[in-house]
Every structure is written in structure tokens, then in C-alpha cells.
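Obj: model holo form, ligand = manganese (II) ion.
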Amino acid sequence: MKKPTTLTDFILQEGRRHKEATGRFTLLMNYIQEAGKIIASHIKKAGLTDILGKSGRTNISGDEVQKLDEFSNQLIINTLLESGLVHALASEELEEPIYSKAGGEYTVFFDPLDGSSNIDININVGTIFSIYHKSSNVLQEGKKQVAAGYIIYGSSVMLVYTTGQGVHMFTLDPSMGSFLLSHRDIKIPDSGNIYSINEAYAKLYSKGLNDYLRSLKEGEKKYKLRYIGAMVADIHRTLLKGGIFIYPEDKKHPNGKLRLMYEVNPMSMLIEQAGGLSRSRKSNPMLIVPKEIHQRVPVALGSTEEVKNYLKFI
Ligand code: AHG
Ligand code: MN
Ligand code: MN
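Output (holo C-alpha cells):
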């Protein structure tokens, strides 16, 4: 019987191919997966203990903060600080970055709980992370990401990540308590028949976008609409099944909703590494020079053919 490949085995193997690897990235990923396991076990108990519902606060972006947002945020902050590996960390739930005195070499951006309004109804949520080498300015372009990934708390818990050498998926084996390699080097289909956008806002969309959506409904190719409202889950499906996910700008939200540093850049790196395409307006969001940590940008990403077709309309 061959030993299953754990996430730690896999990262160590990847690291051995790079002479300059110090092992510190493996350690950092270990801390992140440990935090993910703790959040996963907490979410499983969500209906049983007093962890559901709103905390009564709103965050810097004006969203209502759920108790599980706070729990996950605090847990990841403490875990990363304790690791001694981070120079700075920034979270969707924090007004300002936190700088560590331990002298670590990485900067980590994270969305501790994505799709958190889904938690009360037992639907998928996730954690998104984006890792950079430290620099004098905490804000760096997405193309400088060293690694990016997410953990999806679904019917099974999965950790998906890339270091720029393909996208790999690991599934948590609850009996072993380990993330085991389940999909190596996954590639997104070049085209797909699922589109994912909050079409209820159509009245606020541009004419080009509405023309595009109509073309999907009235064209020869049969499309399906799927929209979970948790980016992690919508992107997870898009990676595996293909199609397109769009969170556009609209008349009331000139930059859309999703945040460049916590959501758009890490998901763009994953989609690109899986052979897909990501665009913010007409260009690659990972080339945007960020101006502030909570900056929002519109985004469309997924199968290359689908995104190219979308770009013809906008
Ligand atoms: P978060 O829970 O981290 O604030 O993110 C929610 C985001 C994202 O996950 C999802 O794609 C989007 O909000 C859905 O927004 P709408 O409800 O406006 O469609
Ligand atoms: Mn989010
Ligand atoms: Mn969030």
C-alpha cells in the first residue's frame, strides 16, 4: 500500500526542486493548513453552539461581521504571528495591516471567511490567502504573489493552492486529520457552459454586459446559471467545470465589490495557473498597482474562451 501524499509531503517535494528553498514556506503553509482545520471543525459545529449569526459590527468595507468572521480572523492572525514567519499580515476584516516584530520574510493577505452570509444556512464558505515576499511597501502587484490559494469548507474540506507551478487540490481526510493530494495540476476546461453573476443587479449593469448576458441566454450554446454568492465556492466550481464568474462594476458600485488584495489577485493567480483567464475591465488584475489595502476592482475570470467572448461585449 502506497502512503497517500499529504500537503506537507507535496510542498516538501516541490521545495526540493528549488535549491534556494529554505523550508520556511513549507512551515508557513503548515500553519495555514492548521488554521484551516480548526476553522473547519468550528464550522461543523455551527448549528450546535453559539457561533451563528451577526456580531453586531460592520467591517471597514461596510459588511456585517458574522461571529465566525471574527473567530476565523483572530485565529489566522494569532496563528501567523505565532509562526514567526510573517513580516506583515493584512485581512479583509482589519482596518490596517499588522506588522510582526519577529522579523519574518512573508506578507500574507487573507479573507478569513469568504461568503460568510452563507454560514447560517449551511452552504459553502471559504478562506482565501495570498502570500508575498516582504517588501518595504505592504502593497505589491498580484504578479508578485509567491503563492495563493483557498480552503473551501464544503461537503468535504479542500485546500487548493499554487506557487506558480500549477494548481493542486488536497482533501481533508477527517479520520487522519490530514489534507491528502486529490487533484494534481488541474486544468480548467477551455470553455464551459456555466455563467455565474448576480443577475438580479442587471438594471445597474452596462448595456454591453446586458447584451452579453442576453447572448448567453438566446444563443445556440445552452448555458446554465449558477451563483452561490461565496466567491470561493463559485471559483472552485469554475476551476473544475469551466465557465465564467463575473463580479462587474455597476451604476452604484463603480469598482464592483470584490477586493483586489484578498479575493481578486489570489483567485486570478489560481485561474491563470490552471490555464484560464482573468480580466479586470480589459486587463490582467495582477498588473494593477494597488493603491490601498481594501481596494475593490471589477473582475471576470474562468475558461479562456468564455472570458474572451465576454471581453467582446464590454
Ligand atoms: P465576504 O463574505 O468575504 O464579504 O465576501 C462575499 C463576497 C463574495 O464571496 C461573493 O462572490 C460576493 O460577496 C457576493 O456578493 P453579492 O451578494 O453582491 O452577489
Ligand atoms: Mn470574501
Ligand atoms: Mn470575508
